[in-house]
Design a protein that fits this description.
The protein has 292 residues and is an alpha/beta fold. It has a domain of 61 residues: DNA polymerase, domain 1. The protein has ten helices and seven strands. It binds adenosine monophosphate (AMP), fe (iii) ion (2 copies) and zinc ion (ZN). The site of one fe (iii) ion has 4 residues, from loops. The site of one fe (iii) ion (FE) has 4 residues, from loops.
C-alpha cells in the first residue's frame, strides 16, 4: 500500500471476540465489521493474541484492513487500567510470559468467584465452561453468562451491576502488572500502547498528570477518547492531556458482540491517527486487503 492511500472506510480499533469475552468468533466479528462499512478493524481481545490469524484471514476475504491488537490488563493500586496495544510482536517472550501469567490468574480467580457465588446460588464451574470457548481469556463476563443461563439474572449487564459487582461480596481481583511495566513490554515488542477508556469514572478519578508523564516517558502513544463510557468532563481533560504530552487520540466501540450494547463503528479513529499508529508499530504488520 502506498503511504497516502486511504482506507476503505472508518476505523474501529477496539473489539473483543470469543478469544476473550466477546460473543462472536474472530471471523464473524470481521464479517460484521465489513458489513458495518468499516475499512479497518483491530481485534483487541483481553491478554491474548490467539484470534489474530483467523481475523486476518477473514479481513483479506472481506477486503478490509486488519490491525492486530490486544487489551492488556494492568493495575495501579486498586484501579484496573486497560492498555490497548497494537502491532507488537506476538512472539515476544517477555510479553507472552506476562499475558500467560495474567490469564492463569484470571482462571484461578474466576474459579474462586464461582465457588463463592455457589454458596448462595446454584452455579458451578461447568456452567462457566459451557459459556467459554476453550483457551479463551476467562473473565467475569463468562460467569455473568452462566448466571444468565441458570436464570439468576436476565442479562450479562445486570449480572455486572448485581452479583458480580465488587460491593456485593463475591468479587475477587486477579494478578495484573503495573501500567508502566505493560507500556515498557509493549514498546520492547515493537508495539504501540494506548490507554483504553481512561475517563470512565469522570475527570477527577482519571490518571494524574505525574503518573501519565511516567507512562509517556516509557513510550505511551495515545489515549482512547471516543468511547461510550468516558464522561464528557473526562473527555475535555483527555484533550488537554493529549495536547500537553503529544499523545494521539483514538475512538472505538469496544464491541463485545451480544455481551454489551456497544455497536461496531459507534466511535471511530481518524485515518491520520491510524496511519500514525501504523508508522509507529514495528513488531507486526497490518494486513491490507489484496487490492488496496
Ligand atoms: P473482568 O476483567 O473479568 O473483571 O471483567 C470486566 C470485563 O467485562 C471488562 O472488560 C468489560 O468490558 C467486560 N464486560 C463484558 N460485557 C459486559 C457488560 N455487559 N457489562 C459490564 N462489563 C462487561
Ligand atoms: Fe471486555
Ligand atoms: Fe477495557
Ligand atoms: Zn475492551
Amino acid at each position: 500500500m502506498s503511504g497516502d492511500t486511504l482506507f476503505r472506510g472508518p476505523s474501529d480499533l477496539h473489539t473483543h471476540s470469543r478469544v476473550s469475552d466477546g460473543t462472536e468468533s474472530p471471523s464473524r466479528l470481521v464479517r460484521e465489521a465489513a458489513a458495518a462499512g468499516l475499512g479497518v478493524v483491530a481485534l483487541t481481545d483481553h491478554d491474548s493474541t490467539a484470534g489474530w490469524h483467523e481475523a486476518a484471514g477473514e479481513a483479506q476475504k472481506q477486503n478490509i484492513t486488519f490491525l492486530p491488537g490486544m487489551e492488556f490488563s494492568t493495575r495501579y493500586g486498586y484501579k484496573s487500567v486497560h492498555l490497548l496495544a497494537y502491532l507488537f510482536d506476538p512472539l515476544s517472550a517477555e510479553l507472552v510470559a506476562e499475558t500467560a501469567r495474567i490469564r492463569e490468574s484470571r482462571l484461578k480467580r474466576a474459579e474462586s468467584i464461582v465457588r463463592r457465588i455457589g454458596v448462595d446460588y446454584a452455579l458451578d464451574w461447568d456452567d462457566v465452561l459451557a459459556q467459554t470457548t476453550p483457551g479463551a481469556t476467562v473473565g467475569r463476563p463468562h460467569i455473568a453468562d452462566a448466571l444468565v443461563a441458570r436464570g439468576h439474572v436476565p442479562t450479562r449487564s445486570e449480572a455486572f451491576t448485581g452479583i458480580l459487582h465488587p460491593r456485593n461480596g463475591y468479587y475477587l481481583p486477579h494478578y495484573a502488572p503495573d501500567p508502566l511495566l505493560a507500556v515498557t513490554l509493549v514498546r520492547r515488542a515493537g508495539g504501540v500502547p494506548v490507554i483504553a477508556h481512561p475517563a470512565t469514572r469522570g475527570r477527577d478519578a482519571m490518571i494524574d498528570e505525574q503518573h501519565l508523564a511516567k507512562l509517556v516517558d516509557a513510550g505511551l502513544f495515545g489515549l482512547e477518547i471516543d468511547h461510550r463510557e468516558n464522561t464528557d468532563d473526562g473527555k475535555v481533560r483527555l484533550r488537554e492531556l493529549a495536547k500537553k504530552f503529544g499523545l494521539v487520540l483514538t475512538g472505538s466501540s469496544d464491541y463485545h458482540g451480544a455481551g454489551k450494547p456497544n455497536r461496531l463503528g459507534e466511535n471511530t479513529t481518524t485515518d491520520a491517527v491510524v496511519q500514525a499508529i501504523i508508522a509507529e508499530g514495528t513488531g507486526s504488520q497490518p494486513v491490507y486487503p489484496p487490492e488496496l
